[in-house]
Amino acid sequence: MINLFQPQVGDAELAAVAEVFDSKWLGHGPRTKAFEAAFAERLGVAPEHVLFLNSGTAGLFLALELLDLAEGDEVVIPSMSFLAAANAIVSAGATPVFCDVDPRTMNPTWEHIEAAVTPRTKAVVVLHYGGCPGDVVEIAERCRERGLALVEDSACSVDSRVDGRAAGSFGDLAMWSFDAAKVLVTGDGGMLYVRDAERAQRARRLAYHGLVQATGLAYAKVSHRWWELEVPEVGRRVIGNDLTAAIGLVQLGRLPEFTGRRKEIVALYDRELADVEGLKTPPPLPDGHESSHYFYWVQMDARIRDQVASDLLAADVYTTFRYAPLHKVPTYKSDAELPGTEQASGETLCLPIHPGLADADVLTVVAELRKAIETRGRDLARETTDVPAAG
């Protein structure tokens, strides 16, 4: 099976984990702090503004909690987002209001967002689809002008930039995901960036039960009766640990290698699929934009997309569509009409892309996709021809 995603881990990651074992300190500790500092350096921010957590989802929930939303408040979010973002909005007590996206880039413009803004809107969440930053610069500027908090869901964009500036550093808060399917993996894990210093301190408290200070050995060296609790507000335990942070530090060093190989795969797909009739490849990135290339997506007639996916699966090529439109999920009680999202969700298929793919694997995917498109396209043409004329 040619997998959609596949983690790239090896001897260096194993050695890093072995060092943690030897240290006898597996929990939140020095390697966690080192990972936060190294990640903050890549972002160009102080380490105090970055927190390593146990998942990207935890980062989304914590980010929305930090906004102190209330019942009746609204948060605008593209319908084509991962469900964790919508769940985080609901969990924070607010209502997700879904906006449309460009059907080719799958990212929203400010115009899409503005169409969903009401007097009750308090914040905006944007996803950088497949690692492409989209119009984040303008969106951030407009949100600041309107007094709206901007949360960047940067799960897909760990190595994405606009004019050299890291995706995730434009808004008020941002999170990255390091689960086993991502560009940088720690097994499970995520990073949270908080622009405001006081809010960043609060985030650290909420990430560890709401405690003002730890109650363990480190605090014992500076405080009498270190076991006593100071909990100004209730939190939960979503901090990362030194085992996963050690893997993350190695992966961060390999990130240029990972992104470079993904870029090569994108170029190969672009070249080999350019002449396939009825198939669209991703639009080129705007000048100054760099992508992590988390997704590679193609688009075709919606009437054959599902059949093409099934044909590829039968040929041991796993594809999928990310992300299913959230405004269609009954839980969120949306009646939004979003034509760009509807179009993209019917036409789009994500192809395998990860650094473990050899060129031969990519060419296999291309050959099977060509075959499926041609076969299903002929079937569709035959069905259309065979339909009797009305009347």
Automatic annotation (TrEMBL):
Listed name of the protein: Spore coat polysaccharide biosynthesis protein SpsC
Q: InterPro entries from the xrefs?
A: DegT/StrS_aminotransferase (IPR000653), PyrdxlP-dep_Trfase (IPR015424), PyrdxlP-dep_Trfase_major (IPR015421), PyrdxlP-dep_Trfase_small (IPR015422)
Query: Which co-factor is required?
Result: pyridoxal 5'-phosphate
The alphabetized UniProt keywords are: Aminotransferase, Pyridoxal phosphate, Transferase
Q: Name one Pfam family in it.
A: DegT_DnrJ_EryC1
For this chain, the family text in UniProt reads: Belongs to the DegT/DnrJ/EryC1 family. L-glutamine:2-deoxy-scyllo-inosose/scyllo-inosose aminotransferase subfamily.
Does the UniProt entry include the keyword Transferase? yes
